[in-house]
Amino acid sequence: MTGRDELRGLRVLGLGDNVVDRYLNAGVMYPGGNALNFAAYAKMLGADAAYLGTFGTDRAARHVRDTLEALAIPTPHCRVVEGANGHADVRIVDGNREFVFSNRGGVAREHPFVPDAADLDYLATFALVHTSCYSHLNPQLAVLRPACALLSYDFSYRWQVDDLIAPVAPHLDFAALSAGDVGRERAMLALRETVAQGCGLALATLGAEGAIAYDGEHFITVVPEPTDVVDTLGAGDAFITATMLALIASGWRRGMRPPPDVLRAALGHGAQFAARICRIEGAFGHAAPIDAETLT
């Protein structure tokens, strides 16, 4: 795995969604969300990570903010809006994790983030800004990309049900797609489309089959790293984070195509870190009890 020394001083930022994942069976909640997970994982890997998004004012929001403070992840430009923070409800059924409800981001959806000039100047100080389809930022991507040295985006599985690739991909340097339920061939077609629309690099995670990346010329695959699985929540975000940081550490920049061996090595770093995260409860730990206030 890319060493902490290689990533020390590398400034990266998660932009957008933060939630708590509420494990109803166990009565606990964990901080999460694609953008928040990216910041936490980048910090774990040794990068200088920050987070920018919108918080509510409920107990869930306080727990997320307290966790970021404990992790020394700065949040200087974050918004706070009266109301419910984002949350997703999870049940464990026959050993499998099932999402049963989400408030779709709470106040972050109700009051979409619109960057001002100070935000854009701030984003320009980072080597990479990462966001997602759950961050309600698609209308802002055309403004964000010129301000960012690199802009990455997680489509999750929404590319399968929404017409996202064509309008979003032209604004991206790196895209990640969840494709574990559609198979390798369909994933390859989606990767070709994403790069053809203007995205520099595209990656599809395939669940138990690993992942495949496409640079416009080469398809490169990686298999999962064997591990003792405690919880798969966040594994995809961990894979994406470690892969991108390894690419940046190797010299990847906008407009550059990493050599195939560099991309292959970065995917290997991603697989190793994802296996590590699978051994942690929640996306990255930091459990708090669910109480009556949290469930309102």
Describe this structure in words.
The chain is built from ten helices and 15 strands. It is an alpha/beta fold and 296 residues long. It has a single domain (4-289), classed as UDP-N-acetylmuramoyl-L-alanine:D-glutamate ligase, CATH 3.40.1190. The strands form three sheets. It has an eight-stranded mixed sheet with strand order 4-1-9-10-11-12-13-14, sandwiched between helices. The model has no long low-confidence stretch (mean pLDDT 95).
What structural keywords apply?
kinase activity; single chain; 10 helices; Ribokinase-like; UDP-N-acetylmuramoyl-L-alanine:D-glutamate ligase; kinase; 5-stranded mixed β-sheet; 296 residues; 15 strands; globular; transferase; alpha/beta; 8-stranded mixed β-sheet
Task: Describe the structure in brief.
This protein is of the alpha/beta class. The chain contains 10 helices and 15 strands. Helix content is 32%, strand content 24%.
Instruction: List the quaternary state of the chains.
Output: single chain
Report the C-alpha radius of gyration, rounded: 18 Å
Trace the largest sheet across and list its strands: 4-1-9-10-11-12-13-14
CATH topology annotation: UDP-N-acetylmuramoyl-L-alanine:D-glutamate ligase
Envelope shape: globular
Classified in CATH, the superfamily is: Ribokinase
List the total number of helices: 10
Total domain count: 1
The CATH architecture designation is: 3-Layer(aba) Sandwich
H/E topology pattern:
HEEEHEEHEEEHHEHEHEHEEEHHE
| Number of strand segments | 15
- Helical content stands at 25-40%
Strand fraction equals: 15-25%
Mean pLDDT across the residues is: 95
> Ends: how far apart?
42 Å
Low-confidence stretches: none
Structural class assignment: alpha/beta
CATH class: Alpha Beta
Largest sheet: 8 strands, mixed
